[in-house]
Design brief:
The protein is α/β, with parallel strands linked by helices. The protein has 11 helices and 8 strands. An 8-stranded mixed beta sheet has the order 1-2-4-3-5-6-7-8, with helices on both faces. It is globular. It starts with 9 loop residues before the first strand and ends in a 5-residue tail after the last helix. The relative contact order is 0.16. This is AB hydrolase-1 domain-containing protein. InterPro entries: AB_hydrolase_1 (IPR000073), AB_hydrolase_fold (IPR029058), Epox_hydrolase-like (IPR000639). Keywords: Hydrolase. GO terms for molecular function: hydrolase activity.
Length: 291
């Protein structure tokens, strides 16, 4: 069922030099949800509804996405800036810490944030995104290199943007429909919402610049990682065509308190394709009831 036209609570905040749009529902302790590519806050629609009875759930558009500021310089998408955005969101909303939830790029930011600001993360929940150290290991294997071909394609100027715009943003639709196992979970209204967000002036370049900046930084510097003491839940749709399940192996080397839930017959879009099961696993991890 499409939730595009639900009466969502929209707001803006200003931090770290950018104006960020966010949707917020509920009251209480902060649950902050970070989306991935090529999405926006809407990818958390099922979770916002499910958890707003227990928390103040906030789902921002990451910088460059949808209604948040579109910044064109590649260096403005350095992971250090993205981490500062998260810290600014938490403090601007009047909190000292949060339950941090991230999927895809949002999950990568969450890993970095938890490593740098562990005191600001009560619990960490990551969906279909490996620990960054495991991802870099994966990129040294032919198997994951083949799956990550698009990262290298995104390094080209202009051409990736043209490809996404071609045929009324058909590539956006294909990213969701072709990767999904249960293609019925994305309504036409859902797909149009994702296309509309990507079509905002400057958005495509901003979104792709995440990958351009990552590529430049990742292959020029080594990152040292602390072993997290934060209770961490990893949820993984097993049929992810972009990120191999084997990338989850060894995550316990970087997390002291780790739980992993694998979901069969489910794609990269795990929280949208299997929302009830994802919500159940998160609720169990947080020791709350959704009823």
């Amino acid at each position: 069922m499409s939730l595009v036209n639900k009466n969502w609570n929209h707001n803006y905040l200003y931090t770290n030099g950018v104006r960020l749009h966010y949707v917020s529902e509920g009251e209480g302790n902060l649950m902050l949800m970070l989306h991935g590519f090529p999405e926006f806050w809407y990818s958390w629609r099922h979770q916002i509804i499910a958890f707003s009875n227990n928390y103040r759930v906030v789902a921002p558009d990451l910088r460059g996405y949808n209604y948040s500021d579109q910044l064109q310089s590649i260096e403005l998408y350095d992971i250090s800036e993205l981490v500062k955005d998260v810290a600014g969101i938490i403090t601007n909303l009047g909190y000292e810490k949060c339950i941090l939830v991230g999927h895809d790029w949002g999950g990568a930011i969450a890993w970095y944030f938890a490593n740098q600001y562990p005191e600001m993360v009560e619990k960490l929940i990551v969906l279909n995104i490996p620990h960054p150290a495991k991802f870099m290991e994966g990129l040294r294997t032919p198997q994951q290199l083949r799956k990550s071909w698009y990262i290298f394609f995104f390094q080209l100027p202009y051409l990736p943007e043209l490809l996404f715009k071609w045929n009324n943003y058909k590539a956006i639709e294909s990213a969701f429909i072709n990767m999904a196992i249960d293609k019925s979970v994305f309504s036409e209204e859902d797909i149009q919402a994702y296309k509309k967000a990507a079509a905002k002036p400057g958005a495509l370049t901003a979104m792709i610049n995440y990958y351009r900046c990552f590529f430049r930084q990742s292959f020029t510097s080594e990152k040292s990682w602390n072993k997290l003491d934060i209770p961490t839940l990893m949820i993984w749709g097993e049929n992810d065509t972009a990120l191999g399940k084997e990338l989850t192996n060894g995550t316990e080397d970087y997390v002291n308190d780790l739980a992993i839930k694998y979901i069969p017959n489910c794609s990269h879009w795990v929280q949208q394709e299997k929302p009830d099961l994802v919500n159940q696993y998160i609720a169990e991890f947080l020791e709350i009831s959704l009823s």
